[in-house]
Amino acid sequence: MIYVEFLGPIPKESVEIEAASLRELSDILSRDEDVKEWLSSSAVAVNDTLVSSLDTKLKSGDRVSLLPPVCGG
Amino acid sequence: MLELASTELDVPEILTRWYTLELQNNFGAYIPFVGIVREEGGISALSFDVYEPLLRSWFDTWQTRAKEKGAKIRMAHSKGDVRVHASSFIAAVFSPKRRVALEFIDEFVEDFKANAPIWKYDVLGNKRVYAKDRSTPIKGSGILGKSR
After folding, report:
1. What CATH number does the domain containing B69 carry?
2. Which residue of A65, B37, B112, B120 could cross-link A45, Cys pair, CB 3.0 to 4.6 Å?
3. Is residue B84 part of a domain?
4. pTM of the prediction?
5. What proportion of chain A, given as a percentage, has pLDDT over 70?
């Protein structure tokens, strides 16, 4: 199981999901009504490191964070 | 040198403390930027969520870049509500000579606005409204939306 957290304004509590890659996670989240609209504008971090490839492998215990558009200051 | 506060920032205290702390390091320039919440659109405050682990790694990358030029960055940011006419963000660059600090403060603040993992909300009455129109996708965003 991987742990997925939705940061900032994304209206969803963290969940545990079975997924072996970000591509698989993308397929799962694209069917989630609360989340799907955020996917095309969110950055993704695995264990607090930003990643840029859907082919990123996931292993049990990994923590995936979705980071929607930001505005500090 | 990243400080997070759960209240609005005490600008005179922070600027004075940083000045005093860095005096011994022989920097010739201290260039601060102070962000102040403006009264606009009927808001009473802005509110901020911060994702601290990635904010710290983002900041550390900048600190390494600054160090390569003999400079140093300090930054403070608020979490939660910051009322109108108070400060939520202070950044400062210290460097041996002015040019490096002037250039760094510009680049640092611009990248901060574009990539630091902080989310802003307008406080309107009892509501906290995500400032979607003023927000920017972090570099590399959108990969999860590309699988189909």
Report:
1. 3.90.1170.40
2. A65
3. yes
4. 0.94
5. 100
